[in-house]
């Protein structure tokens, strides 16, 4: 569920495919901390 919410948020910022690619290429690292790290690396507005 957390990955789905994070992907939705990525889509709201126009970066769904970049986020999706990061999730699929690092499936062994999935988890809350990883989702936040990817969001930071893609320069998401985290408060949004």
How would you characterize the overall build of this protein?
- The protein is mainly alpha-helical and 48 residues long.
- It has helices at residues 2-12, 16-25, 32-41.
- The protein contains three helices and no strands.
- The longest helix has 11 residues, at 2-12.
- α1 packs antiparallel against α2.
Shape: globular
- Count of extended strands: 0
Unreliable runs = none
What's the helix count? 3
Overall helicity? 55-70%
Write the layout of secondary structure elements.
Elements: H1 2-12, H2 16-25, H3 32-41
Helix pairs in contact: 1-2
Keywords:
48 residues, mainly alpha, 65% helix, 0% strand, globular
Quick recap of the structure?
It contains three helices and no strands.
């Amino acid at each position: 569920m957390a990955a789905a919410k994070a992907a939705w948020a990525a889509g709201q910022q126009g970066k769904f495919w970049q986020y999706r690619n990061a999730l699929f290429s690092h499936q062994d690292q999935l988890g809350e901390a990883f989702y936040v790290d990817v969001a930071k690396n893609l320069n998401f507005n985290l408060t949004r």
